[in-house]
Write a structure and sequence with these properties.
The structure holds two protein chains of two kinds.
Chain A (H helix, E strand, L loop, with lengths): L4 E3 L3 E9 L3 E3 L2 E3 L2 E3 L3 E3 L4 E3 L2 E8 L2 E3 L2 E9 L4 E3 L2 E3 L1 E4 L4 E3 L2 E3 L6 H5 L1 H7 L3 H4 L1 H6 L5 H9 L2 H9 L11 H6 L2 H5 L1 H8 L2 H4 L7 H20 L1
Parallel strand pairs in A: 1-3, 2-4, 2-5, 3-6, 4-7, 5-8, 6-8, 7-9, 8-10, 9-11, 10-12, 10-13, 11-14, 12-15
Chain B lengths: L3 E3 L3 E9 L3 E3 L2 E8 L2 E4 L4 E13 L2 E3 L2 E9 L4 E3 L2 E8 L4 E3 L2 E2 L3
Parallel strand pairs in B: 1-3, 2-4, 3-5, 4-6, 5-6, 6-7, 6-8, 7-9, 8-10, 9-11, 10-12
Classes of the chains: A alpha/beta, B mainly beta.
C-alpha cells in the first residue's frame, strides 16, 4: 500500500526523505526529498533541499531545485528559489520563482515513474545544451551594432564644428594659435614614428592614428575656447 | 489525523522533531523527537532514538526510548534498546531486549 505520507505543520525533518508513494509537506524539511509519487507542499510548508517526484504542487517555500517527471505547479503564494524542470511547468499568478525554469522531455508516462533515477540523468544534459546557444547568439550581435553606430557620428561632429565657427570671428587668432600648435602636433607624428614599437603588439590600434588630425581640430576648439 | 505520517515505502534518514503526533509505517534512521505520541506501525522499521509523550510499537524499533507517559509494545512488535518511561507494557507475542527504567 503506497500510502501517502504527511509531514505535519509542527514537524521538522532534518535529513533526506525518499521512497515510494506520495508526500504532503506542511512542516519543514531540511534535506532532499525524492519520491516516486506526487509531492504537495502546503502553504505552511518549507523545504530547503532539492525535490523530485512525479507531480510537484507547491504552495509554500522551497529553497532548492524542483524536478518533476510529470509536472511542477507553483500555486499562488509559493516562493521558490531554485531551478525548475518538468515536462509541464505551471506558475500561477502570485507565485514567486527565482531560478532557471525549463520544460523539457516528454511526460514520460510509466517509465519515468517506475525508475525516476533513470529519468534524471537523461534530463540534466538538456538544460545546458538548449539555453547556452540561445544566450550566446544574441549577445555578440548587439555589440558590433553599437560600435558602428557610435563611430561615424563622432567624426561628423568634429568636421561640422571645425569649419563653421572658425571663419567669422576666429579667423585672425588662428595663425597665432597655429604657431604654438606645431610643438603639440609634433609629438603626434613622433608618436607615429615610435608607434611601430607599440603597434607591433596591438595591430588593431593602428586605425586610430588617422583620427589624430581630427582630434587636432578638437584641440583647436579648445584653443578657441581659451581665447574666448 | 495524525500530524505527521511516514507512509510505507518512504525512508527518512535524519532527524525528525516536532510537537505533534507522529505515525511511522515506513523506515526511519536517525532520531525522533516530539512532545506528542509516537506510533510505530507494523510495517515500520525504525533505527532511531525516540523521545515522546508515549510510544506504541507494532513494528521494529532499534534505539533508546524516552517517554514522559508510557511505552507499549504490541503483539508482533519488536524493540531493542533501553526504555525510560513511567509506564511500560509488553503484550503477549512481543519481543523486547534492553533495560527498563520506570523512574521508581
Amino acid at each position: 500500500m503506497a500510502e501517502g505520507s504527511v509531514i505535519g505543520a509542527g514537524t521538522v525533518v532534518s535529513g533526506h526523505v525518499r521512497g515510494q508513494g506520495s508526500l504532503e509537506i506542511s512542516g519543514r524539511v531540511e534535506g532532499d526529498v525524492s519520491v516516486t509519487g506526487n509531492v504537495v507542499i502546503g502553504s505552511a510548508g518549507r523545504v530547503r533541499g532539492n525535490i523530485s517526484g512525479a507531480e510537484l504542487r507547491v504552495s509554500g517555500q522551497v529553497q532548492g531545485d524542483l524536478r518533476g517527471t510529470v509536472a511542477v505547479l507553483l500555486e499562488a503564494g509559493a516562493r521558490v528559489a531554485g531551478d525548475i524542470s518538468a515536462p509541464r511547468v505551471g506558475i500561477a499568478p502570485g507565485a514567486l520563482a527565482r531560478g532557471h525554469v525549463q520544460t523539457d522531455g516528454e511526460p514520460a508516462p510509466a517509465a519515468a515513474r517506475i525508475s525516476p533515477a533513470a529519468a534524471r540523468p537523461a534530463a540534466p544534459p538538456a538544460r545546458p545544451a538548449a539555453p547556452a546557444p540561445a544566450k550566446l547568439e544574441p549577445r555578440p550581435a548587439p555589440a558590433p551594432v553599437k560600435v558602428e553606430a557610435k563611430a561615424p557620428p563622432v567624426p561628423a561632429k568634429f568636421e561640422a564644428k571645425g569649419p563653421l565657427p572658425p571663419p567669422p570671428k576666429l579667423a585672425p587668432p588662428k595663425p597665432e594659435l597655429r604657431k604654438p600648435e606645431p610643438p603639440r602636433v609634433a609629438p603626434a607624428p613622433s608618436q607615429a614614428e615610435f608607434t611601430p614599437v607599440r603597434p607591433l603588439k596591438p595591430e588593431p590600434r593602428r586605425p586610430p592614428p588617422p583620427v589624430v588630425p581630427v582630434l587636432s581640430k578638437g584641440t583647436k576648439a579648445k584653443k578657441k575656447k581659451t581665447q574666448e | 489525523m495524525a500530524g505527521t505520517v511516514i507512509g510505507e515505502g518512504l525512508t527518512i534518514e535524519g532527524d525528525i522533531s516536532g510537537d505533534e503526533e507522529i505515525v511511522i509505517h515506513g523506515n526511519l534512521r536517525g532520531r525522533l523527537t516530539t512532545t506528542d505520541a509516537v506510533t510505530v506501525g507494523g510495517t515500520a522499521v525504525v533505527g532511531a532514538d525516540i523521545t515522546g509523550a508515549s510510544l506504541s510499537v507494532a513494528g521494529q524499533v532499534t534505539g533508546d526510548v524516552t517517554a514522559s507517559e508510557r511505552v507499549d509494545i504490541q503483539a508482533g512488535g519488536k524493540l531493542v534498546g533501553d526504555i525510560k518511561a513511567a509506564r511500560f507494557t509488553i503484550a503477549d507475542g512481543a519481543s523486547f531486549k534492553g533495560n527498563v527504567d520506570m523512574e521508581v
